[in-house]
Design a protein that fits this description.
The chain is α+β, with helices and mostly antiparallel strands and about 120 residues long. It has a single domain, classed as HIT family, subunit A, CATH 3.30.428. Helices cover about 30% and strands about 20% of the residues. The protein contains 4 helices and 5 strands. A 5-stranded antiparallel β-sheet has the order 1-2-3-5-4, with helices on one face. A hairpin with a 7-residue loop joins β2 and β3. It is globular. It binds adenosine monophosphate (AMP). The site of adenosine monophosphate has 12 residues, from loops.
């Protein structure tokens, strides 16, 4: 499967679709999920074209990998989850429930997140 340049997050990265930005640097963008599942629900995405975590880990540079990991913690801190914690997760493929084929970490916070899976 090749990267779909017309996926919704690619359009957000190109500025063709707006987002509620939380954080941005040279390597990552973080924005509020359009359909929040918890009080705080933010997505952290790499700027590079990666379908999912497997694609990212096989193709991304060490710098990109470090930057994305650090951004998850940084963004969680920005949204006030430093003390009480949060859940970070990424869905991969159809069994994983991935809908948008551009790697993204969900950050859920602001309340008890509850059961790990349902
Ligand atoms: P996943 O099922 O892991 O691929 O999650 C995709 C997420 O992207 C869902 O939580 C959607 O609500 C979210 N989403 C879809 N379109 C947008 C958008 N335009 N802006 C922000 N979040 C979006």
């Amino acid at each position: 499967m090749s990267y779909d340049k017309n996926n919704i997050f690619a359009k957000i990265l190109r500025g063709e679709i707006p987002c509620k930005k939380v954080y941005e640097n040279d390597h990552v963008l973080a924005f509020h999920d359009i359909n929040p599942q918890k009080k705080v629900h933010v997505l952290v995405i790499p700027k590079g074209e990666y379908i999912d975590l497997n694609d990212f880990n096989s193709k991304a540079s060490d710098k990109e990998i470090v930057e994305l990991n650090k951004a998850v913690t940084h963004v969680a801190n920005l949204v006030g989850a430093k003390d009480k914690g949060f859940r970070a997760l990424t869905n991969i493929g159809s069994d994983g429930g991935q809908e948008v084929p551009h790697l993204h970490f969900h950050i859920f916070a602001g309340e008890k997140i509850g059961k790990m899976v349902s």
